[in-house]
Design a protein that fits this description.
single chain, 485 residues, mainly alpha, two-stranded antiparallel sheet, oxidoreductase activity, acting on diphenols and related substances as donors, oxygen as acceptor
């Protein structure tokens, strides 16, 4: 059935599908790790039980999201070797070390302290446990640092030379490669997006439980914290996004032209199109509706500033406009909705009605998944807008793929779709089930198994007074002092 299919397009669809699934979990776990660190820090500072309860409540959810993020991320490296071997061969000397640094400095840090964070609250001192939580939070940020550095270098490649064998080799300074022109903007914009994603999930869960019981102190606390985040950080994100857009205009003008729907150049000020149907064949925006000269004001800070359009770009160099145009509007629209929820919550807080305005709570529930939609829309804007290049201006996507037949790519694509929806669907369902349960005093946190480690090296446990239990597990009745069960 795939004999006449395009192997390149199937490979792109497969990567888009898997990375979309993967992206939502780090976007959540990056923000949630920092939220857990804040909760534990507030508990240690104030001694209030509500912070410890919320820490244990969200720790269970973090454990599952983190695990699914790790598992889904492994597939990305797999595809570099199967579907994109030419890209891996050419760009490997540059991106390979950066991705290795991510494993060495971030993943090992997270993995090293994750067990202490999940199971060690009653087994180590409070200071050491808080340090472990901080290290996991820092590790998630460092992981984002390196991965976004790789992606940013592919968007704005600098600091390399092409070797005799066609590979891209570091030229002089790794600093120039790591801190490439788009990296600082992309890092700030993406990390803030992760924090807002988590804030609206937490706010949605808090609002859900407030609707069921407005006196629930745990729901009140998480909802209040989330709304502070929305009110204070959403405006910062809009500013960061604007700065990122100006950087993109400087280095990837064709992407901005697609985002704005500017098929034609505007020498006397370009309109900001709010709606339209991009028509690549006719090179025009059908049913266009916009505000005159506002795009020039935003991008050039002058009403009459000229802006070039896609008519200045060769057809084969243009990105597909439709997905970029609409993904950008979805992302920006959600950003302003977040800003509106934050402002609404400030008004409610000033009037002493933060926990009483039911429509605010309903809106917060509706906005709960909005961060995930926004980050996926942002990813589509960034990655599809880079086309037809894998490494912008240097290596085309068509020249990056492995020499595979379409049926081979299609087979793995079908397998991924089935496995991903089964595995991650169940994981997501379980997370939603945990969220549906109201946080309460005396949260148990992550449960410990009753069984000890499996021994496979010929070591036989010695006799115990209770042969029905593993000797490494505390006798019955002692668990209460160690893990709160």
């Amino acid at each position: 059935m795939f004999e006449n299919a395009d192997a390149l397009m199937l490979a792109r669809i497969q990567f888009a599908f898997t990375v979309s699934f993967h992206f939502i979990f780090p976007a959540f776990s990056i923000g949630l790790a920092s939220y857990l660190a804040v909760l534990e820090g507030l508990w240690l500072k104030t001694g209030k039980q509500v912070y410890q309860d919320l820490f244990k409540y969200w720790l269970k959810i973090f454990a599952i999201a983190f695990a699914m993020g790790v598992v889904s991320g492994i597939v990305m490296s797999y595809q570099f070797g199967t579907n994109w071997s030419v890209f891996s061969d050419k760009a490997g000397p540059v991106i390979g070390p950066l991705m290795a640094y991510e494993v060495l400095t971030a993943f090992f840090l997270e993995a090293g302290f994750l067990g202490v964070m999940l199971f060690g609250m009653n087994r180590v001192g409070k200071g050491l446990h808080f340090t472990a939580t901080l290290m996991v939070a820092v590790g998630t940020f460092i992981s984002a640092f390196w991965i976004l550095s790789v992606n940013s270098w592919m968007q704005t490649p600098v600091g390399f030379v092409e070797g005799a064998n066609g590979q891209f080799l570091p030229e002089a300074s790794w600093f120039e490669i790591v801190f490439n022109p788009s990296f600082p903007y992309r890092l700030v914009h993406t990390v803030i997006a992760a924090y807002l994603t988590t804030a609206f999930v937490v706010g949605g869960v808090g609002a859900w439980h407030l609707l069921k019981d407005s006196a629930n102190q745990h729901a009140r606390k998480m909802f209040s914290m989330a709304m502070w985040m929305a009110a204070l950080v959403a405006p910062v994100q809009i500013f960061a996004g604007d700065m990122h857009g100006l950087n993109t205009l400087e280095h990837q003008p064709a992407k901005v032209m697609a985002m704005e729907g500017h098929y034609e150049s505007h020498p006397d000020g370009a309109p900001l199109y709010l709606f339209g149907i991009p028509n690549d064949e006719e090179q025009r925006l059908d049913y266009a509706f916009g505000i005159p000269k506002l795009s020039s004001l935003i991008l050039k800070h002058e009403l009459d500033a000229p802006l070039d359009g896609l008519d200045t770009i060769a057809d084969e160099e243009q990105p597909p406009v439709f997905p970029v145009f609409w993904a950008f509007r979805v992302m920006v629209g959600i950003g302003f909705l977040m800003l509106g929820i934050g402002a609404w919550s400030l008004l409610a807080r000033l009037r002493g009605k933060l926990y009483d305005w039911r429509w605010l709570h309903r809106a917060a529930i509706a906005m709960g998944p909005s961060g995930f939609v926004a980050v996926i829309a942002g990813w589509i804007t960034t990655e599809v807008g880079r086309q037809p290049w894998t490494i912008y201006g240097v290596l085309r996507t068509a020249d990056s793929a492995s020499p595979l037949d379409a049926p081979a790519v299609a087979t793995s694509l079908i397998a991924f779709v089935i496995v991903y929806f089964a595995v991650f669907g169940v994981g997501t369902w379980y997370i939603l089930r945990l969220m549906s349960q109201s946080p309460h005093t005396g949260e148990k946190g992550v449960k410990r198994t009753e069984k000890g480690p499996v021994r496979t090296a010929g070591i036989t446990p010695g006799p115990t007074q209770n042969p029905g239990r593993d000797p490494d597990v505390l006798p019955a009745g002692k668990e209460e002092a160690t893990d709160g069960r």
